[in-house]
Structure formats: structure tokens, C-alpha cells
């Protein structure tokens, strides 16, 4: 599949960000969304460019680290799935996919698609998630 990406790129919290366009020509419909980003980052690294920074941990749909807005929806087009559970078969050849960070005042962008999740740590420390 050929996929056109518009990815939020932001150097750090103190700089303005913008959408940057990329094109991937050989995306397998069996790839997860994060694997597709791995392919993009490999391509960028080979060109001597900075890879896109994004959160991920378990890649099994458990941790929730991979939160992104994909085409204006949290985690993308599938209801009840995390970004790492989203596969490229959910998109069509030639689609343009807009990928932005999870935006909230409590979660400022650190770089690109990675946000500061320390607000969650404070909730956990206060016992808020286990009461």
C-alpha cells in the first residue's frame, strides 16, 4: 500500500510544531500502526533525518502509552482499540493519515508525538486509580 502521512513534528515543549508530510510506498496491510512508524523512522534515519518520536511500551494493547490522534480520533478509526492494536488494513491504498499527539493541557508535548504523562503518576501516587 501507498500511504501519505501528515505527522506532527515539534522539537520540544517550547517550540511551535507543525504537520510534516511523508510518503511510504510499501506498507503491508498486516503491519500494526506502530510498525508502520518503525518503517518511516528507519527511512528517515537512513536519510540522516531525525526519526519521529512517539510513545510506546508493550505493543500489546495493555499499557496505553501509544496514545495518538489519528485522523482526528483518539487511537484511530477502530473503537475500543489502542494505537498498537490498529493495523494498516484499516486504511486504503493512497489514504492520507494525519497523526497528532494526544493534546491536553495536563500532557504537554515533549517532542513530536510524545507527551509528558507525569500527571498520571501524580494520580497513581495519590491512590486515585486504585480506590
Write the layout of secondary structure elements.
Blueprint: E1 3-9, E2 18-24, H1 33-46, E3 68-70, E4 73-74, E5 96-101, E6 109-111, E7 114-115, H2 118-125
Parallel strand pairs: 1-5
Antiparallel strand pairs: 1-2, 3-4, 3-5, 6-7
Q: How can the largest sheet be summarized?
A: 5 strands, mixed
Which percent bin holds the helix content?
10-25%
How large is the count of helical segments?
Answer: 2
Write down the CATH topology: Ubiquitin-like (UB roll)
For CATH, the homologous superfamily is named as Beta-grasp domain
Gap between N and C termini, in Å?
A: 46 Å
Number of domains: 1
Which whole number gives the mean pLDDT? Answer: 87
**Name of the CATH first level:** Alpha Beta
| Count of extended strands | 7
Taking all Cα atoms into account, the compactness measure Rg is 15 Å
Strand content: 15-25%
Coarse shape:
globular
Q: List low-pLDDT spans.
A: none
Give the strand line-up of the largest sheet: 2-1-5-3-4
The gist of it:
This protein is of the alpha+beta class. It has two helices and seven strands.
Primary descriptors:
131 residues; alpha+beta; Ubiquitin-like (UB roll); five-stranded mixed β-sheet; two-stranded antiparallel ribbon; 2 helices
Write structural notes for this entry.
It contains two helices and seven strands; from the N terminus they run ββαβββββα. By secondary structure, the chain is an alpha+beta fold. It has one domain: Ubiquitin-like (UB roll). A five-stranded mixed β-sheet has the order 2-1-5-3-4, with no helix packed on it.
Amino acid at each position: 500500500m501507498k500511504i501519505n502521512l501528515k505527522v506532527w513534528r515539534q522539537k520540544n515543549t517550547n517550540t511551535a510544531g507543525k504537520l510534516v508530510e511523508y510518503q511510504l510506498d510499501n506498507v503491508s496491510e498486516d503491519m500494526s500502526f506502530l510498525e508502520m512508524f518503525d518503517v518511516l523512522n528507519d527511512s528517515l534515519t537512513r536519510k540522516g533525518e531525525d526519526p519521529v518520536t512517539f510513545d510506546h511500551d508493550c505493543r500489546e494493547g495493555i499499557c496505553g502509552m501509544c496514545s495518538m490522534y489519528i485522523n482526528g480520533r483518539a487511537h484511530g478509526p477502530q473503537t475500543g482499540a489502542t494505537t498498537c492494536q490498529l493495523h494498516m488494513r484499516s486504511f486504503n491504498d493512497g489514504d492520507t493519515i494525519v497523526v497528532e499527539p494526544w493534546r491536553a493541557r495536563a500532557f504537554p508535548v515533549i517532542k513530536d508525538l510524545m507527551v509528558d504523562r507525569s500527571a498520571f503518576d501524580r494520580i497513581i501516587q495519590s491512590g486515585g486509580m486504585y480506590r
